[in-house]
TrEMBL record:
Gene3D superfamilies: NAD(P)-binding Rossmann-like Domain (3.40.50.720). Residues 7-191 form the NAD(P)-binding domain. Pfam families: NAD_binding_10. It comes from the Bacteria. This is SDR family oxidoreductase.
């Protein structure tokens, strides 16, 4: 496969890039700095230097080219409202339109479980983050793309277990970024999964088996 990752230098995106490369896939992405571009090149990945908030839809479509799939894993992680809107809101909308212009149908979005931390007082900016993420989910689900929305539970660093719980509705717990990336890589290689929202938590089912169980 030829996969373009928006968020290729992020926690999930970076791990996904490594896993796809290990499978023999071509990987490219959008980065903000030339040193990031150079570092990715040493690992056999190509990148375009640009800012998601300022790049035009037409420029982004040209950057996508004729890839097989686009993954949007960038995120503000509940930062300022301005950054959240630019990345998690407007950034997703721009990428959806650019994918349409480029003729790329497969589009995977890393989202968030809606009930994450509902027992806490999250503050205005984090609540805004959840609202923007939901708006992005809706926008993608109403597009004509062959979309996939993956909603992981609380993200942790460290090695994955290779086992998850994956389905249309899952409890909110925690999961390593490594297992999220592994699940995404497997989902991208399963063409029978599309136009689905899947939630992801740590579990006891091997990733490959969990993905196959969600073929509809």
């Amino acid at each position: 496969m030829d996969v373009f990752i928006i968020g290729i230098t992020g926690g999930v995106g970076g791990l996904l890039a490594q896993k796809l490369r290990s499978r023999g896939d071509a990987v490219r992405g959008l980065v903000r700095r030339e040193d990031q571009q150079a570092e990715l090149a040493t690992r056999g990945m190509t990148a375009r230097v640009g800012d998601l908030s300022s790049i035009t839809v037409e420029e982004l479509a040209a950057t996508f080219g004729s890839v097989d799939a686009i993954v949007f894993s960038a995120g503000s992680n509940g930062g300022s409202k301005e950054v959240t809107k630019a990345v998690d809101g407007d950034g997703v909308a721009k990428a959806i339109e650019a994918a349409r212009l480029a003729g790329v149908e497969r589009f995977a979005l890393v989202s968030v479980l809606p009930e994450s931390w509902r027992e806490r007082d999250l503050g205005e900016e984090v609540e805004y983050y959840f609202a923007v993420k939901k708006d992005a989910d809706i926008a993608l689900s109403r597009s004509e793309l062959n979309w996939l929305i993956l909603r992981p539970s609380l993200l942790l660093d460290g090695p994955g277990t290779g086992a998850v719980s994956l389905g249309p509705a899952e409890f909110h717990g925690q999961i390593t970024r490594d297992d999220v990336a592994g699940t995404l890589a497997e989902l991208l290689h399963e063409p029978r999964i599309g136009r689905q929202i899947l939630e992801l938590n740590t579990g006891s089912t091997p990733i490959e088996e969990a993905v196959r169980a969600n073929v509809r």
